[in-house]
Design goal:
The chain has 314 residues and is of the alpha/beta class. The chain is built from five helices and 14 strands. It folds into two domains: 212 residues, Zn peptidases (Aminopeptidase, 3-Layer(aba) Sandwich); 71 residues, OB fold (Dihydrolipoamide Acetyltransferase, E2P) (Beta Barrel). The strands form two sheets. It has an eleven-stranded mixed sheet, sandwiched between helices. Strands 9-11-12 form a three-stranded antiparallel sheet, with no helix packed on it. The longest helix has 18 residues.
Length: 314
């Protein structure tokens, strides 16, 4: 495995936000009619760009002009365990917080399921949710819009980044952005998950600020002038939608890529070998196949997704 990626920005001291409506969750009501918008950071404890943004908004004292605003630091225990010598370890404590949302009716026996039970009523209250993530490997920012038309339409209204990923999540468990009304095509409630780039790149903070500013103004809970003028970046000329058709998981953790692939790389020909899993070739199923978040620099465990494959939407 190659050397660890650099950490290009200072991590915020979050203990000052421990006291809120629930630990590390803050709710601000305007007293005027309007939607409830929630911005969540640290769904994974080492994905820090979102925490920088939420910390800055709390420090600024941002309040909604209408409706309600909720800020959450989700897996705070994982974040507080961060060690720069083993920076990937603090993604979670016991299990992936973002795979627990389909079994919250069961006894909470891990740090993450107990925390999800605390976060759950605030997620259920939200009309709009932005879940701020980042990536293990370097890659272009991606907006994960879920499988429904309403998610893609919401991502288009946000207007950035370039790539909108239409996907059904993970076989390992339900994500927060797909939970409850967010996953109901008949409900107006809507959620997005932004992957801002590599976890500790300064550019990931820039993306997180931009998308959060767009999200909050689009929901109508604040006005554009309520946020720092340099947060919103120029919009891309156009966005594109990639619909995920396959999620390739390693059977026993023995996947070897044919070469280092770039995120959102388009492979022109069907049948191109992407790598081998237990010696068996993994190939592209169709022409112009888009590689969504291919693994290039991580230890693999059985069942881990090594790449998702997608088609460019017409």
């Amino acid at each position: 495995m190659s050397e660890l990626p650099p950490i290009e920005f200072a991590f915020p001291e979050l203990r000052r936000w421990a006291k809120g409506a629930a630990p590390y969750i803050h709710v601000f009501e305007s007293g005027k009619p309007g939607p409830t918008a929630m911005v969540a950071a640290l769904t994974h404890g080492n994905e820090v760009s979102g925490a920088v943004v939420v910390d800055a908004l709390l420090d600024k004292g941002l309040r909604p002009r209408r409706g309600t605003l909720i800020f959450s630091f989700n897996n705070i225990e994982a974040y507080l365990s961060f060690d720069p010598r083993t920076p990937f370890k603090s993604r979670m404590v016991d299990e992936d917080f973002n795979r627990t949302w389909g079994r919250l009716d069961q006894p909470a026996t891990t740090v993450e399921t107990r925390r999800a039970q605390v976060v759950k009523p605030f997620v259920e209250r939200a009309d709009f949710l932005l879940d701020l993530h980042s990536m293990h490997d370097d890659g272009v920012p991606l907006m994960l819009a879920g499988p429904l038309d309403k998610g893609v339409a919401f991502a288009r209204r946000i207007g950035a980044p370039i790539d909108i990923i239409r996907d059904a999540g993970h076989a390992a468990g339900l994500r927060m952005r797909d939970y409850g009304a967010f996953g109901d095509p008949k409900s107006p409630s809507n959620a997005l998950l932004i992957e801002t780039g590599q976890h500790w790149r300064a550019s990931s903070v820039v993306v997180a600020k931009d998308v959060t500013a767009r999200f909050l103004t689009e929901t109508g809970v604040i006005e554009p002038g309520d946020l720092p003028a340099d947060w919103k970046r120029p919009s891309p000329p156009q966005q594109r939608v990639v619909e995920v058709t396959h999620a390739i998981a390693t059977k026993r953790g023995n996947y070897t890529p044919a070469r280092q692939f770039e995120g959102q790389e388009v492979i022109a020909k069907a049948g191109t070998v992407l790598g081998h899993d237990d010696g068996e070739p993994v190939t592209t199923p169709y022409d112009n196949c888009v590689l969504v978040m291919p693994s290039s620099n991580r230890p693999l465990r059985p069942g881990v997704t090594v790449v998702r494959l997608g088609r460019l939407a017409a």
